Here is the input.
Amino acid sequence: MHRVFGVKENAEYRDREGAYIIPVRGDEVGVVRTPKGYFLVGGGIENGESHTDCLVRECREETGYTVAVGERLCTAETYLFHSSIGYFHPIQTYYRGEFIARETAPTESDHEFMWVRYDDIKGKMFFEMQDWALKNALDK
Here is the structure.
């Protein structure tokens, strides 16, 4: 399943492929809270790494946890204008996953990992496409 968000303007966009994990524990999901808002755990693919390698690295950086990456759930992309990047086109792939153990402190000090009830986070993610991915993951 794939969905496109936003409106593509007649401009040159900066593409950014990323991978994100959606861990579920009972009626709770794992998300990261930053000063900007709520995000799924994950981020941009670097130096040609695989999606799994990206998720392992991002989870360690943002949460300190090791993870087991599960099935691919869906993909989404959005077109937006970012104040420091300009025209931005994030392309995100979402995976089911499990947080195994916290092995270290997160290296991104402004990221707070938390387990929240889906009903409490629904509609509150920073990116609309991550709200959609979260709903899609929990409907499966």
